[in-house]
Amino acid sequence: MTRTTAPTPTRVRTAIFPVAGLGTRFLPATKATPKELLPVLDQPLLQFAIDEARAAGIERMIFVSHPSKDAIERYVRQDDELEETLRAKGKESMADMLQDNALCDGEAQVRFVMQDEPLGLGHAVLCAADGVLPGPVAVILPDDLILGEPGCLSEMIEAYDRETAGHMVATMEVGEAEVSSYGVLAVTGRDGPRILADGMVEKPDPADAPSRQAVVGRYVLDGSIFDDLRGLPAGAGGEIQLTDAIARGVGTVGLCGFRFTGTRFDCGSKQGMLQATIAYAGQHPEFRDTVIDARPDMLAAE
To answer: Residues in domain Nucleotidyl transferase (predicted)?
Structure first.
């Protein structure tokens, strides 16, 4: 009797959100408020990431958090009591907005796992291993805000082809002086928005960087990433680096970058957060005039 092996699923059903970081660059604000809940104008960073995953058809969302950041789970899950209070006060539209933002069990499967120690992004992803659905997985870093339609993750999933490359990373071209702040692809060719690569280097010296294609916070990764993370030694900064695990699997599953069409803001920095707030406000008619009016004042203040 011949045994048939089930084909490896290729649909991306799970997204991992690493949200355990302490956000020290935004102290004192992050002493009480997780950085992922800091608002870009009127919307928390995390909500942008959740909406992006929703739009991409993600079925299960796994939040890798820290015990000190219980506010994230309170934010993510539906709060029936608060919604009822708002409705009783006649604030129907506000209650509807909270209901729309919250993740309900009927809409998406929600999991929370804890990363007790800051051992790196690779370790955070590995913490989620037991909860992922079969097939490739997405990783979304909420403090990398990418504004645009369609969303970056939707674009990546649409372009994902496991036969071409099992690991896909969002990339953008950066200046030579900036490459030392990113993982950088060793580029071998291009296929439309896909950038073929045979490796990547974490935070290289500009003189040694294999390209200027920098990896930013969106990944679609073959399920083998978890095997490559297990037992991986600490890398740059003494942490378990996700880029090291991706590089380990290049020869087996392949690697490509993806040039997304949206605009990326590094909201892990104060400058990036301010830029994102101004850009997002400028997209809304009720705020656009305020942004325009404020610019001459800011220039005069200098």
So the answer is: 20-252
